[in-house]
Design goal:
The protein is of the alpha/beta class. The chain has helices spanning 13-21, 39-48, 59-70, 87-100, 103-106; strands at residues 5-7, 26-28, 52-55, 77-80, 110-113.
Length: 115
């Protein structure tokens, strides 16, 4: 069973669709009725729901770094630059990570894609 994922509003719909076709539990910020929420709110919300967050927004990296330095916990952040990975690479890498990683391994950490 894979870990559940929360997807930021900066991620293309093709990524979400590809993950769902592969059986990954994905909740988008839009579906969660938070399309305009601030990035720190989305990172907190994903944690409240027990979901790792995936984003392609650079701003999340600074927020996660700040939270790590100040001891504020989050469920984990997976990041892919918008120009450095294809949709197929992102879907394949996310599927792998979510199927093999544990909550403990991803908690309070940032993972960069592609692997």
């Amino acid at each position: 069973m894979s870990l559940p994922l929360y997807v930021d509003h900066h991620v293309r719909a093709a990524v979400t669709k590809g993950l769902r076709r592969r059986g990954i539990d994905v909740l988008t910020a839009f579906e969660d009725e938070r399309p305009d929420a601030a990035d720190d709110e989305l990172l907190a919300r994903a944690g409240e729901l027990g979901r790792v967050i995936f984003t392609q927004d650079d701003d999340f990296l600074a927020i996660a770094d700040d939270w790590q330095r100040t001891g504020r916990h989050f469920a984990g952040l997976i990041y892919a630059h918008q120009l450095r990975a294809t949709v197929g690479q992102i879907v394949a890498d996310l599927r792998l990570v979510l199927e093999v990683a544990t909550r403990e391994e991803l908690c309070d950490s940032v993972l960069f894609l592609p692997l």
